[in-house]
Amino acid sequence: MAxxxxxxxxxxxxxxxxxxxxxxxxxIFLFVGTYVMYFFTNLLKISxxxxxxxxxxxxxxxxxxxxxxxxxxxxxxxxxxxxxRPFIVFGAPFxxxxxxxxxxxxxxxxxxxxxxxxxIYIMYSLAWTVVQIPQLALPIMLSNDVARRTRIQSIFQALxxxxxxxxxxxxxxxxxxxxxxxxxxxxxxxxxxxxxVATILFILSAQSVRKLDVYNxxxxxxxxxxxxxxxxxxxxxxxxNRALVCVLIAYGTDMFAMQISNSARLxxxxxxxxxRTDLISYIGYMGTIVxxxxxxFVQPLVAKTGKKWSIIVVEALAILLTLPMMFMGKSVAAVxxxxxxxxxxxxxxxxxxxxAVLDAANYSEWKTGMNNSALVSSTFTFINKCCQAFSxxxxxxxxxxxxxxxxxxxQSESTQTAFLLMMTLIPIIGYVCSLVxxxxxxxxxxxxxxxxxxxRAKRAxxxxxxxxxxx
Length: 471
Fold this sequence. Notes:
It comes from Allofournierella massiliensis. By secondary structure, this protein is an all-alpha fold. The protein has helices spanning 12-42, 48-75, 85-102, 110-137, 139-142, 146-177, 184-206, 217-224, 231-239, 242-272, 280-327, 332-368, 373-401, 413-423, 425-439, 445-462.
């Protein structure tokens, strides 16, 4: 007998269309996360400490704008574009323009270059907020089934690794082709190409929910009657969401450490491994292979064990896999073994954590009856940007303390040791913190099933019809 999707479940082709958006996400986010420190220090000639401070200051702005954006999206209900799509379709071109400006090298002089970097990075952060918060909330509309939504996230993650491959394996060759990694013109050409592709893919991704993201008369009536949550009530609902707090602790500490590791990668291969930056491309290849393999096994995995124990096992495995590089950092074989195997755990954990954030949005609705999925999504984007910013500030402070000098072809032993620890010890600390966070996660697999069935009945009642049965 053929399988029938329940009312409101997205078609398979719409899931793949939505997932195109993660190519756009990662093209921009990973490029910024991997190269913005290098661009600031080596092209704009900003000190590592100041470069890290720029990114940290932008997060203070996000502390206000991210939750506000989440609340704006949750209250949006347009007749022609629905709730989420207008922000993605109209915000993506602006994000592309600001992204190009972020990697533009003006000849203003040291002080004005610093001011320029502050202004443009904050603009980039705001543009990212406008597009990302609604986009990451779309799976809430695509499926109510926790296991199926994990598969959606795995497809989303798999397509995103195409961008990871581009950034990891082809960005430097492209820069070298157009003039080299220290040529401002080369950066401009490369980022314009990325911006155009990302903008198109964002807009295509938004079309995946064109039949699901529609005008909601019930929400309109509530708005007319004055029924709405205040900012304080909305934020209280977020902080009282134990599932969300646990996931954000687990994801945030893990991502903070991995952002430091990713940012240190180019320095490590340049100075610790004698300029073997050609090896970086293999990490991108591995990540792509693993991500596509996850499509086939992640839904059965979560359906059997649930998110909590899946993430705990993956984090414990990551600790063991990092040890060879930590103790044999001069060995190319040990370094590549660690980084290639960590590509597996990092991709799997990232996908599971993203899906768990969406489950936390459902958890809030299940326990309180309030749907604040975009606000919950905003906490994820905020944590993501905080990880990028504070990791850059931390890394910049360490590089300054150990005497990093971009003019030197060979860095000091203490500087090289710092790069090794940023690639190994700091990630291990992040993995341990993630284990602790998920240990207190309030849902096992039985709870996930109970939650999704309760919400399915709630959705059916809102449509005033009987829920259809999947078989």
